[in-house]
Amino acid sequence: MKLQKIIEINPILPFTEFDLMQKYRKGFESSELGRLHAMLPLKEMAEQLASAFPKKHPQGNTPMFPPEGEIALMFLKSYTGQSDDGLVEMLNGNIYMQMFCGVFIDPDHPIKNGKIVSAIRNRLAKALDIKKLQKVLFEKWKPELKNQDRCMTDATCYESFLRYPMDVKLLWECCEWLHSLMRTEFRRAGERMPRNKYRDLDRDRLVYAKMRKKTHAKTQKLRKRLLKLLDKLIAQWNRFRKLYPWGIMLSAGQEKRLSAILKVRGQQHELLEKKEVHRRVVSIDRPYIRPIVRGKENKRVEFGAKVNNIQIDGISFIEHHSFEAFNEGVRLKQCIEYQKELTGIDVREIGADTIYANNENRKYCTENGITTCFARKGPKPKDQDDATTASRRIIGNLRATVMEGSFGNQKLHYGVGRIAARNSRSETLLLFFGIHMANAAILAQRKWLAEEKEKEKNRRSHKRA
Predict the structure, then answer these.
(1) Fewer Cβ atoms within 10 Å of its own Cβ: the N or the C terminal residue of the chain?
(2) pTM above 0.85, yes or no
């Protein structure tokens, strides 16, 4: 047997091996992975995602991982930051990772198929309900969280793994892929490839790419030529499909990419005519990604999911996410209501960026007795309360340090800095598990530090006695 669930192997082990397994379990509980495992409500999450777990494998075998193990594997991917193949390789050789996922892998028969991870990810992504799962996570973490009447909120962009989408590169990718498809289908049909300027533009594009200084005139000239070539390739492809309506069978992925190419062609024509383009496509591989204008000095535009987070005692929860750009400043009321839905406690303090400080939000907070960190409008009142001023300053400092710092921690250490996924569902799932793996790590660290502090306190009291 190549792989067994850990709960099933105790009765069949000899005493010495059973004793060794008990030592491993004890070591796992005190390890970092064990502390993280204790912070995750895997069983409750598996119940929420029950529709994603098949009772039988498509080949007729029982599933390799238990439901809790599949969810743990997704957390483990965010924790390690490895590719699918790299994660499987680490899982084969690390007994603690196997315990984290609730399986035992026979060293003589390791898992060799890295596609197992992507298959699990795609199944879970279809059943993912962020709000329900976050409710389960909050119920698990609720005893550890303080100041549940204080809400911090801010938005950030979790970027996708994507090259910077220049118009010339995007048009050339469209031409290259469509020309390759045509060459394959024409050869299959026994037809001669129609004439076009593909080879000439391939040579000129390479010359352009090697230029150290690319002037606006040269860029525009090449862009117009590429767009003209794309128009011709699309026209040739449409004529061919009319001639062989039943002989061309494209996959769903090919049809999706062809649809994205047609959309890019239309948008590029509008851009050349100086028209405003909405829902701009920046990748034919992932047409759901949009440019998110952030206005930062070092990175004015980002490409990926924009997420509005709330934070309770340093622990982040997704309030709203979208691959389309949105104004987070109008979502303050929704953030307050969502925190109340999670905690059951009225929000009394809120920390948010200046973009949230519009008149409607100020009025709402005043009517509900919520203290904010917003700068006051108008002259400074003579009877201003010093305690309220100090409270505003504390809330503002927490938002600027803890909230902003959590974004950097998630992106640098938990796999959401440049998310590599092939569709929006998988990208959302990786984003969800990355954010909450960071939360679990923070809580596990807090609990460990508290335990160490208590041990040190006991040692000192014992010495005094």
Answers:
(1) C
(2) yes
